[in-house]
Amino acid sequence: MEYRRIIPCLDTRDGRLVKGVHFVEIKELGDPARAGEAYSRAGADELVFLDITATLEGRKTFLEAVRRTVARISIPLTVGGGISSIDDIKKLLEAGVAKISVNSAAVRDPEFVRRAVNEFGGERITVAIDTRSSSELPSGFEVVVAGGTKPTGLDAVEWARKVEQLGAGTILPTSMDADGTRAGYDIPMTRAISDAVDIPIIASGGAGTLEHLYQAIEEGHADAVLVASIAHYGTFTIRQMKEYLSGKGIPVRMDNLP
């Protein structure tokens, strides 16, 4: 059975857990390792750890915070932020990370994705695609990089097709317009990318209700849902999310709930 996954997202800055709205208005929420442990115990299927200012600040991911998080969890961890070389990936995988996520570096050098896939396997390589609405592109969605600060002129759907061809195993599209708003995922964008490729898609940006999770899967055709605000602020537990989806006929893993 193909389970739909619940994946809490640990956005970090300077090694601390944070959350923003539209990629700005950043608030500090504590220790990512402690939050990761709590989600791991609560029945989350995976975790994503994103060092959101690494690329902007021209530095690498905070390895120390990653290692502390890995040490306290028992579920797969994907790490992104500031990854721009094969050596960066190697260090993270050696630290116990299950998968890595690349974004700006992939846009800058698409062949980097192919090299990473050849070296480590596509199942370990996720490409994150940050988007914003644009009436000037065929799909209506433009790729933005550097923490949402730089438009690229790339059509998000065409870019998704390209990274699939390069061998990426997963795509993580995040709507900059919806991020942190709790008003719901950008369903048209998520669906457009999901329907254009055959690899798993993780819906991201904007979850505020349990219904939003269902919509991302049912209407957005996502294989997994990334959650942040509704988990970090205690709006819903992982159990509540899974029980709701299960009640709607969505297959989710229940055997890992406490």
Short description:
The chain is an alpha/beta fold and 258 residues long. The chain contains ten helices and twelve strands.
The arrangement of helices and strands along the chain is EEEHEHEHEHHEEEHEHEHEHH
Intertermini distance: 21 Å
Individual helix count: 10
What is the name of the CATH class? Answer: Alpha Beta
Mean pLDDT: 91
Structural classification: alpha/beta
Radius of gyration: 17 Å
- Taken from the alpha-carbon principal axes, the silhouette is globular
CATH architecture: Alpha-Beta Barrel
Number of domains: 1
- Strand fraction band? 25-35%
- Kindly report the name of the CATH homologous superfamily: Aldolase class I
Sheet with the most strands? 12 strands, mixed
CATH topology: TIM Barrel
Counting DSSP E segments of at least 2 residues, the number of strands comes to 12
Which residues form runs of ≥5 with pLDDT under 50?
A: none
* Helical coverage, percent range: 25-40%
